[in-house]
Amino acid sequence: MENIALAAILVPFAGAALTLLAGQKAAKWLCQLFAAIASICMAELAYTYAAAGKVAHTYLVAAVGDTTLFGLTVDSVSVLIGFAVVVLGFLVAVYSSAYMSEGNREHPHEGTPRYYAFLLVFIGAMAGLVLSSTLVGQLLFFEITGGCSWALIGYYQKPKSLASALKALLVTHVGAIGLYFAAALLFAHTGSFALSGLAGLDDSAKTLIFFGVLFAAWGKSAQLPLHIWLPDAMEAPTPVSAYLHAASMVKVGVYIFARAILSAGHVPEIIGVVGSIMAVATLIYGFILYLPQKDMKRLLAYSTITQLAYIFFALSLSIFGSNLALKGGIAHIFNHAFAKSLFFLVAGAISYTCGTRSLPALKGLLKQSPLLGIGFCVAALAVTGVPPFNGFFSKFAIFAGGFEVARTHWMLLPLVILAMLESVASFAWFLHWFGATVPGETSEVVAASSKVPLAMQFVLVVLVIMSLGSSFIAASWLG
Amino acid sequence: MSHMEWVYALLLTPFATALLAFFSRGLGAAARRAATLFHLLGITLMLVLSLGTAFAVLADGPISAAGGWFYIDGLAAIFLALIGVVGFLTGLYSIGYMRHEVDNGEISVPTLCTYYGFFNLFLCTMLLAVTANNIIMMWVAIEATTLGSTFLVGIYGQRSSLEAAWKYVIICTVGVAFGLFGTVLVYSNATSVLADPSGAVFWTVLLGHAGQLDPALMRIAFVFVLIGFGTKAGLFPMHAWLPDAHSEAPSPVSALLSAALLNCALLVIIRYYIIVSKTLGPAFPRMLLLAFGIMSIAVAALFIIVQRDMKRLLAYSSVENMGLIALSIGLGGPLGVLAALLHVINHSLAKALLFCGSGNILLKYGTRDMDAIKGVARVAPLTALLMGAGALALGGMPPFNIFISEFMVVTAGIHSGHPWLMLVTLLLLTLVLAGLVRMVARTLLGPSPDAVARGELGVLTLLPMVLLLAMMLTLGVSMPRPVAAALDSAARIVLDQGDAPLAAGAAAPWIKTTAKPVPTAAPAAGL
Amino acid sequence: MTATLIVNNLAGLLFVTSLLVMGVSRPTASAVFYSLQSLVLVLIFVTLAATLGAGELYLWAASAFVTKVVLVPVIMYRALGKLQDPAASRPLIGPTGLCLAAAVIAVLSYLAVSTVKLAVVAELKPALAVSLGHFFLGLLCIVSQRNILKQIFGYCLMENGAHLTLALMANRAPELVEIGIATDAIFAVVIMTLVARQIFRTLQTLDVKQLTALKG
Q1: Is C209 in CB contact (< 8 Å) with chain B?
Q2: Prediction ipTM score
Q3: Domain regions of chain C by residue span
Q4: Is the pLDDT confidence value at B50 over 90?
């Protein structure tokens, strides 16, 4: 099993090297090929793991003396999330092959080998991070994703996009300082970097390490006070936004937090208190900033910030003893990845065909392009958590977990209620834009739009299906 | 050949090469070809001899030669091998770089001969500095490195380069005079307490009798030594010469100054640190190193972030990295020392790469001003790729080597109870990263000016960079056994632990020759 | 008068000569005074050699005479005679300030030396203080002078200070050590003079305040 897992990490890296060397024409095909191989590896890993009775394993890959440097954790959570990030990587690679072309009305530009190489590195780094069993492994891939995100956000090489890229790199690097500290502290206390060592520590050491991890998580997952990079990062090509800012990079934060919680056993409650308060604060902040946004991608960025806050909230609740909230949080990582990617890719398809993504200019999408209309509709409903779409189920679990915990910790009750109110309000807001853009007579821009290429259609259809069904996969997988 | 003869051959090779290069001035039409050929042969032989000597030390223990005047232990071996590798690669790069300069009439053929002569003389003095066991000779050699390289800094003979050369020679000789004073204090201290004063001049003897030396005098002496050789190593506030000299020198010389010269002075400081720690206990020298280290990092980071001149930016990055190394030694413990030594290697490779890259850009664009350099990726894609990867690596991005040594420094800091200092260091390193990434974004990316012709300069200016980046990646992904063994043996010398293994697994996890076999080349396999 | 008293007094004379080196305006005059100072240094070596019975010191005295009394001053005198830049001759600190600073250095050096407990130098502490002070006097010369040629002399003064310390505290050092230091010092002076001449030829100035192309 460890070889398949290692392959899932290394294949994209090898592919990136090849892609960079290959010419402009071959790059996009090589990228898709290697992303597909990595996806197959992840699927194979999931199958093997399930067939072996879903027993969690940690494999040692590199150690010096008694100190574990790098290892692989194969358990239900890492396989589920690993599958999502790698497969979404593949879908984005397919989508990019059509999006990054001269036919694009917003950015007519053929994708360069550099683009595809960094995308592959990103996929590999995500797989590595998710499967890593040590803090130092997480830190390594955390930083690699940071470096790649700089290259991808600044891809168009405009001064503005380069500035945004630098901002993303630096803010997440400042976040990484927390992980540096957590790894060094863990080593100072246990003589090893293995996350499993967390369980044996006393509360004061755990608290310090958790604060380090939490800080790093806030940085990557764009939570207050380190959220500032995400809205600007929308300068990236839209497939990149879909992958980095919906499915993978922003999920790094919540994932390492979840992984630490899973490894530590008992977690000091102060972490839960700080985590949940900051989550709700981010939630409200993110919602308020929905309101003035006209650019569809910036709206989605703030939506991502709030959705990640839900996950932080869920994970923090789990510290108070709610297993349901933990499962809900992890399922939400999975579900939100598909739903938000769909939303971004719909936005990308709109700018590809219409040449703009300014919401007020868009009207009557459904009539002109039923797929985009349906995609918009499904994505909005899934992201805001309307049944029967995937967001509903995970959010439901989070709230149920919240009320469960609130019985013993009454202070949490207002936070849970605030979170629910936000959910309803954001539904109303998305409904508003949905009503304005999707139904009705087509506006000038929409009427003049071009056709959505086949590769993009394929990806959108897959994601629509996943937005309906991913919750069932997650629920049955997590048990 | 015995080991001793290797050492003599190693020291004589660059010296003889230098003489041959100087004399080829008189060869008329053949001068250019002859000097280049002598240079190429000389640096190749020097590479072989230095690596051979370093391996011999690793295999058979320290080499002592010329009645104890030369002494090469595991610590010196690392620096020796670095001078060999960096000297060879920058020497190779020089051939391509200087060919362009001569073809374009920037320098004349006689100057080229003098350049190769001084280049090899400079190598010779650096080799002398790291192999010296006689502390007076150590000083003489460090002083000689200044004298040997002054001409190289001022070679273009323009206003700014002459100014840089003047600042370089005056600040460094004055600074190193402090080193002389410190050396004299240590030496006279030893002559008065040793039964046989004739041994007082040898570092190995001093180390053996460190306990008998007068603590008050050694305290003063270490301050002098740190100021003196710290000037040469580029520590703040004695670094004033460094940005000027590094930016004005021809790029291969900048690379050599930054990647080899600074290390030599650093080695001398480490040598005294070992003795003084034994006499006084480590608290005092560590405190000084911590203070100089963090100040250097802080000031350099601020200069990096506002810099417009590409080579000055890289020069301040040298100050920053030397500060980080001093800081890491100051943190103490096996982990701190290992981190420092590893960072010495990592920084040298990265900085040699970047200065070579900046040289390619300088030749293409004719300026170092980052407001004028645009779109290198379109003009010279391979240079841009190597430069970009190198800059990110220098900023501490994995999977390159600097990430590992920086992480080790932080781990050492937390381990030794300096969390706040580490926090400040990491924030400053973030600033440095910002400066480097901004450099990449401003110069490598974007549209290129029409006036600049497309195309690379040639194999000789690219091959050294490719090799350097490959080494950086190798060190970052999987540390080769010999390097690990060398670091291990060097760290023992710095910690003065003799042959005893470094404190139990917890203290030195990174480098142990008994590592479990790694099943596949995982990205983190050799962390 | 005992021999140690002679040494201490001669050491005091060193201080005076260095003030002269710094104080005079013409570089050639500085070269003459530097030669004079080196002669004093040689006399100290000879006295020390006689009193301590350290035979090596005669050799030191001889080599110092050749290099410092003759060679370096001659090189400087000949090289500097052609370089004239009156604008650069005004020092940053006037004679009064110079003397004041020198006094402060002397007191501080004396205090620093008084903590040293080595039997060898018990009698010669004033001389030791002078050697330390002399070193810093050289540094003072470098920072207080605008003329780059004076800065070279500053370095020579520092080097003399270190040399005296070596003679006082480690006079049994092998001759080779002494020669190494002296040779290096001469080369340093030669190289600095060459650079100074090139600067004068290219920029027509010796004023350190004119060297401001590089900043930041």
Answers
A1: no
A2: 0.90
A3: 3-210
A4: yes
